[in-house]
Write a structure and sequence with these properties.
- This protein is an alpha+beta fold and 362 residues long.
- The chain contains 8 helices and 17 strands.
- 23% of the residues lie in helices and 25% in strands.
- Helix 2 runs antiparallel to helix 3.
């Protein structure tokens, strides 16, 4: 018999993984390798058994403690946890795993809401005419009783028995026992969409093409880019993700927005930052300059004695808020001083005279 793989490696997680990470890893792998997704694939079925076995142990606090301390030996027949006394817990020793609580804790998250929708136990409970007995062997639950007090999950991950569930399909518990597939919401998907700086500021419509890798079919859809969207934001397209199973809904597609650059403009949230260079004489004596904004040019007054690095705030010339179309950020203009590279002889003489006057007045 081949040696068992490390349960953490089976689920692709490290030993410090929390409950949420363990459940997420199992959900992903269970869906990937489930027999319904891989009909006739023995390797996939075996993998499904392995990930289910690993999850059953690592998702249970007590089992996980035993496994972390003793490894697979903790669940072998005759195992002793120390002191020569055999461990007597709610686990079997022949690869049959018992749920010590409500099985819906596990399958309610993995296989949708079937356990809570009344498909088992009248009003989503276990017991009575629609309850489980045990699930064990190769026939699954329903074989060992009808009170549903507890159940076990066999290594083949098959359920069945009295009016029950076999292979990978749930069946009604009364009448003819006709079957239906389980429901599982489709996984969400992610993709990137590129927009220009101005498209992000003012909003636009983009046409994208979605391709089904299985069938090769393509679908073109129009996506609205809301004004004010920022780099890294996502747009949710409901039902455009991976297909669901059974009657469950499809997953969603999240488009990550990548905003291009615009020369001379920098965006920080809703605010815009630009620069402007003014002549030395304007900085000294003051004057008016024309400043570019996203909404057209505006005239700005430069105060006398303006220093390099001074910031001018243009209220409301920033980016509109996605949540409130009446709210805008501001534009901040950093003033730089233009220094002429070449000047005439007459200008040089005047500057020399100016420098002399400055020194004498100091």
């Amino acid at each position: 018999m081949a040696a068992k793989q490390d349960y953490y490696k089976v689920l692709g997680i490290d030993k410090n993984a929390d409950d949420k990470t363990i459940k997420k890893a199992y959900r992903k792998l269970a869906k990937k390798y489930h027999p319904d997704m891989n009909p006739g694939d023995a390797a996939a079925e075996q993998k499904f058994k392995e990930v289910t076995e690993a999850y059953n142990v690592l998702s249970d606090t007590e089992k996980k403690k035993l496994y972390d301390q003793f490894g697979h030996a903790a669940f072998e027949e005759g195992f002793s946890a120390g002191g020569g006394q055999s461990y007597d817990g709610p686990y079997t020793t022949h690869r049959e795993y018992h749920f010590t609580g409500d099985a819906s804790d596990i399958f309610g998250d993995i296989f949708g809401d079937l356990f809570n929708d009344g498909h088992f136990g009248g009003h989503g409970s276990f017991g009575g005419d629609r309850g489980f007995g045990g699930f064990g062997g190769h026939d699954g639950f329903g074989q060992s009783g009808g009170d549903g007090s507890h159940g076990s999950f066999d290594e083949n991950a098959h359920f069945g028995g009295r009016g029950g569930f076999s292979g990978a399909h749930f069946y009604s518990t009364g009448g003819s026992g006709s079957g239906f597939g389980y429901d599982m919401r489709g996984d969400d998907a992610e993709a990137d969409i590129e927009v220009t700086f101005d498209e992000a500021v003012f909003g636009c419509d983009k046409v994208i093409t979605l391709r089904n890798n299985s069938t090769g079919d393509e679908q073109s859809i129009k996506v609205h880019i809301p004004a004010g969207i920022d780099d890294g934001n996502s747009i949710r397209l409901k039902g455009k993700g991976h297909p669901g199973m059974g009657k469950a809904e499809d997953g969603d597609l999240f488009l990550r927005v990548k905003v291009g650059k615009k020369s001379g403009y920098e965006r920080k949230g809703q605010d815009i930052y630009t620069k402007i260079n003014v002549p030395y004489t304007t900085a000294v004596l003051g004057g008016d300059v024309r400043v570019h904004t996203l909404y057209g040019d505006v005239e700005c007054k430069i105060k006398e004695g303006t220093q390099s690095g001074t910031k001018i705030r243009l209220k409301g010339k920033g980016v509109v808020s996605k949540k409130d179309g009446k709210t805008y950020g501001d534009q901040y203009v950093t003033v730089g001083i233009e220094v002429p590279r070449h000047i005439s002889k007459n200008a040089r003489e005047k500057l020399m005279e100016y420098r002399s006057l400055c020194r004498n007045s100091a």
